[in-house]
Write the structure tokens for this entry.
Amino acid sequence: MKIGVLALQGDFAEHIAILHHMEVDTGEVRLPSQLDELDGLIIPGGESTTIGKLATTFDMIEPLRQFSHNRPIWGTCAGAIFLSCGAKRQQPLLNLMDITIERNAFGRQVNSFEIDLIIPALEDPELPFRALFIRAPLIERVGEDVEVLARLPEDSQRAGRVVAAQQGHLLATSFHPELTDDKRFHRYFLSLVKGLEDHDPSLRLA
Ligand code: GLN
């Protein structure tokens, strides 16, 4: 199994480091031909407008859409924005996930924060997942085919709002699992790639 990380801009190195640590074959992706050998792709956090513009320049938009037809993609933060079909402003998007995003929903860089989330889809679901939000987006709307994986806790700002979602083999998180030691979200993505996810047979790859 080989998992690529889109390396146009942002914190791709952190995802690569975690995958190395998990002994998963990985590589940086900047060109369409580099998608061929992959079983799944992670789009990192960073700045979604920049990622979208560079993806346009490198002729990556259509190849990424093709890739998504039968292989999992996970977007973290800016990557989640890029996967979405709406960010309420003009910027290049993949239009793959039926979610609408509110960018910078918690304010500026200085308003970054960490919070414990309960994420039932992960292993040891009762164990909170420490989530880092850095100029983070909210998933403002989810379409009918989108499953909510995590919401902000009741005692937090923007309580109850969606911060992780899944549509078949597409995943979006507002936060950055690559910046913590907890590898459960990466393992969850790998389980989608392996097609072992048995709570929903439609997640299996052809
Ligand atoms: N604020 C960035 C954007 O809107 C996302 C921030 C991040 O990826 N940490 O693209």
Summary: The domain at 2-203 is CATH 3.40.50.880 (Rossmann fold).
